[in-house]
Amino acid sequence: MSEIRNGIEVTNRLKTWFVVSKPSAASEGTKFRDMIEEHVASIKSMMEKIRSIEEEAMQVLKNIRERIKALESEKASLLAEMEELKKEAEAKVNALEDELSTLRKEVKALKELLSRTE
Fold first, then answer.
1. Which segments of the chain are extended strands (E)?
2. Is residue 71 predicted with pLDDT exceeding 90?
3. Are 11 and 2 contacting, i.e. CB atoms less than 8 angstroms apart?
4. In a domain, 118, yes or no
């Protein structure tokens, strides 16, 4: 079977495909390994940074917990001191009220005495 194409007689038609050559498997594997090693190194570096940040965060958390504990202790101490001061103030108020009551009685008695003598 022959056919004429573009002015040329084609007697035997064969199908052909273009083949693109690839780099050798060895060099491709080496490039891939190099790329993987770079990524592994990058990942290791990131992991070290993450660990460092985690350690810093844990230290900050520990310091905050210690400060909270100290502040809670100081708060309890101040509340106890305030209660003592309130008790002392109430005792002074009661003593002053008693003293005033006594003074009022004395004033009343003096007034009665003066009014009798006149």
1. 3-5, 8-10
2. yes
3. yes
4. no
